[in-house]
């Protein structure tokens, strides 16, 4: 069943449309009207949040796929894997394969330690030469 979106009217909008009708002053009526206005703003805000969440629901998956495509196309711009990292990854893969096959690995030590490359800050001296200062991570 198709619905015409122009014909669907939100009840909060109907309440707002009656605001120009003159009403005789009644303190209780004014108090209930103010409470109703507060409640209506809460309902409207909740509906707007729900609408936004529904509209943005598939964005995480879509963005992740776009990111993967970008990485795939620009693989040459990424830093290359170090030999120690590659050896560690290969050793972990071998351990996982051995566990899947049910074979217990006898010696599963990683021979190449994973180290972080450290940079040093250098100053050029006036008389020539280089002075090394503190390490920078």
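Sequence proposed for the structure above (137 residues):
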């Amino acid at each position: 069943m198709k619905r015409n979106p122009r014909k669907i009217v939100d009840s909060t909008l109907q309440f707002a449309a009656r605001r120009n009708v003159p009403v005789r002053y009644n303190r209780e009526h004014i108090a209930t009207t103010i409470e109703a206005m507060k409640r209506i703003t809460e309902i409207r805000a909740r509906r707007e949040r729900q609408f936004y969440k529904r509209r943005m629901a598939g964005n995480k998956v879509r963005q992740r796929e776009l990111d993967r495509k970008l990485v795939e196309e620009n693989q040459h711009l990424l830093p290359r894997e170090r030999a120690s990292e590659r050896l560690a990854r290969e050793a972990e893969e071998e351990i996982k394969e051995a566990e899947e096959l049910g074979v217990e690995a006898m010696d599963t030590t990683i021979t190449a330690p994973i180290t972080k490359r450290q940079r040093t800050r250098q100053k050029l001296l006036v008389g020539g030469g280089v002075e090394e200062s503190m390490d920078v991570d």
